[in-house]
Amino acid sequence: MRILYYHQFFGIPKGAAGTRSYEFAKRLVQNGHHVTMVCGTLTNSTTGLSGPFERGRRTGMVEGIEVIELDLPVANKTGFAPRAISYLKYGARSVGIALTQKYDVVFATTTPLTAGVPGIVARWLRRKPFVFEVRDLWPELPVAMGIVKNPLIIKAMSVLEWASYRSANRCVGLSPGIKEGIMRRGVAESKVSLIPNSCDLDVFDVPAEPFEWPEAVKPGDFVAIFTGTHGIANGLHAVLDTAAVLKKRGRDDIKFVFIGDGREKPGLIERAQAEGLANCVFMNPVPKLKLVHALHAADAGLMILKNVPAFYYGTSPNKFFDYLASSMPIVNNYPGWLADMIKENKCGVVVPPENPSAMAEALIELADNRDCLEAMGANARRLADQFDRSKLAVDFEKALVEAVNDRRGA
Known about the structure:
The protein has an 8-stranded mixed sheet with strand order 3-4-2-1-5-6-7-8, sandwiched between helices. Strands 11-10-9-12-13-14 form a 6-stranded parallel sheet, sandwiched between helices. The protein has helices spanning 20-30, 80-100, 116-125, 140-144, 151-167, 176-184, 201-204, 237-248, 265-274, 288-297, 309-312, 318-325, 337-345, 356-368, 371-386, 389-409, and strands at residues 2-6, 34-42, 57-62, 65-74, 105-109, 130-134, 170-173, 192-194, 222-227, 254-259, 280-283, 300-303, 330-332, 348-350. The chain has 2 domains: 2-198 and 388-409, Glycogen Phosphorylase B (Rossmann fold); 202-386, Rossmann fold (3-Layer(aba) Sandwich). The protein is of the alpha/beta class and 410 residues long. The protein contains 16 helices and 14 strands. Strand 1 (2-6), helix 1 and strand 2 (34-42) form a beta-alpha-beta unit. Helices cover 44% and strands 18% of the residues. It is globular and about 65 Å long. The two termini are 18 Å apart.
């Protein structure tokens, strides 16, 4: 089976981006399929290709995956308007590939929502099966966060969302809320698969190596780590609010380490410096292969999101599954399916949103009773087995095969 795979932010473990597409594509290749990955360029990540772009693209083989990288650079800190332009360019240029490339099925994953455009074109102009993966509900989430307010843009996004869902032979949702959101747009449940983000156990099951923390982190400190994008959606000022509470209580032994980048990071650093929050330590993004050792060396992982109800069941963050794979207790500050999972499996603590005192109390309890960390970590690792990437890759491949078989039987 020849698969034309669209993911604008594709990256391999040598970079700092999520590796879901890489891991699934790699397994498809191992199972005898041919995968052509069409992507752009994300700062702090790498597609595995190097050398100059020619006519706006470069191509090559990366661990058996044929990669077509378009010269469309985007950074996590890029503003909404420049990102939107990049998204539109990616969708437009991807159409040409969909019209000329040889393939059996198109797979497209958001974000951006414009990744669905070549799938729509392939379905109706070339009569090719199309599988659409939804990582976030658009326009619901950006509207709920107040990022998108223009009614014309909202309407256009809604139309593109509907057209992508209804054109797809199969849809994949990364969380229960996303699956329900797809079904609300009229897609039959039988055509929607729930395949959440996964745990790369082979990546995390390696001997721990010493990780060099910044000087502010002292031996014996309790380290609560946050990894990934520092954006509006992450609501990281809630962590600084907690840091301020801990400072007042004299708990300088509890450190918050932020690894990543994003539009909010400069403001977070400025606030921490202005308020003298020496318990907040900011680091640059690190490749996933190095991040593994940081997570092994930390004491707890922070699952932080802005208090937006649409997030409760409508997100599937990579960091949550990385924390599980690294046998790390999780501190979560918003309700929903992940909070329920943490409580049911006793692999961390859940605190109410927008309650820095509650989060401070939870961290003090963990720091003062470190024996419980080992039990929580063991529970996290057992839960990680349920989300083993190799197991979920079977469901992923099944969705593609079913789309091809349905099309052939039509």
